[in-house]
Amino acid sequence: MIESPTPRLTRRESQELTRRRLIESAATLFADHGVRATSLIAVAENAGFSRGAVHGNFSDKDELAAAVVQFVVEDLGPELGRALSSPGSANDRLAAYISTHIDYCRREPTRAAAIIAAVGYLSRSAAAAPSYGERSADSVADLVALFEDGQRRGEMRDFDPITMALSLRSVLDTAVPTHSSIEANEIIALFDHATRAEEAPQ
Questions:
Q1: Mean pLDDT, to the nearest integer, of 100-107?
Q2: Cα-Cα-Cα-Cα dihedral of 154, 159, 164, 165, to 10°?
Q3: Are 31 and 114 in contact (CB under 8 A)?
Q4: Is 106 exposed, middle or buried (0-12, 13-18, 19+ CB in 10 A)?
Q5: Residue 196: CB atoms within 10 Å
Q6: Which of 69, 66, 42 is nearest to 54 (CA)?
Q7: CB neighbour list of residue 51: distance below 8 Å, 6 or more residues apart
Q8: What is the pTM of this model?
Q9: 156 pairs with which residues across the strands?
């Protein structure tokens, strides 16, 4: 029996595959060594390419770091979206969001460490600061909406949703990925206590 030849990739598909391999290579090296200590040559060689492949896809290290952040966000985002749209009270959905994020960090420790490294690098980069600020604002929008919905329903007490959202993201984005033994139930209990209305059922 003659096997069918493997279909050849189009130019666009080949470019997208190269870009994906470079991003995954960068994520691994960022997680292991940090962004500043990782050269673009190392990223290319780790992915099996020449340096030109990196420069053909990314203008500089800032753009590559931003692509790593976007890659992880797009990987985790749908799971968090499902948690936020799950049935139950606002506090139930908050618990699902927290546990989903922690489960992902344990399942994908390299990607979790990579996004911490990339976000830390971008937050200190003057060139990347404006666009990074926009991404940071977008990342808390869903949580703000959850908290506001909980307050409208009387399930959550009166507090500033933006402050609470930023506080939760800070815990999930820094403490959780760097402490593999952290207990999801403790984080859930902490933010449940901080947000739940006194008269809301447990």
A1: 92
A2: 60
A3: yes
A4: middle
A5: 19
A6: 42
A7: 40, 41, 44
A8: 0.81
A9: 196
Judge contact between 176 and 188, C-beta under 8 A: no
Residue 47 amino acid letter: A
Structure tokens at 185: 């139930």
| Geometric angle at alpha carbon 149, from 152 and 198, rounded to 5° | 60
94's tokens: 């908050």
Residue keyed to tokens 């390299």:
110
Does the pLDDT value for residue 135 go beyond 60? no
Q: What is the mean pLDDT of the chain?
A: 87
Per-residue pLDDT tens digits for 36-59: 999 999 999 999 999 889 989 999
181 Cβ contact list (under 8 Å, min separation 6): none
User: In 3-state terms, what secondary structure has residue 180?
Assistant: coil
Measured distance CA(90)–CA(198) in Å, rounded: 14
The model's confidence at residue 170, banded by pLDDT at 50, 70 and 90, is confident
Scan for tokens 């939760």, then name that residue: 168
Residue labelled with tokens 């500043």 = 36
Decide: 64 and 40 in contact? Cβ < 8 Å.
yes
Asked whether the beta carbons of 92 and 100 are under 8 A apart, the reply is no
Name all contacts of 107-111 with Cβ < 8 Å and 24+ positions apart: 108/75, 109/31, 109/177, 109/180, 110/27, 110/28, 110/31, 111/27, 111/31, 111/71, 111/72, 111/75
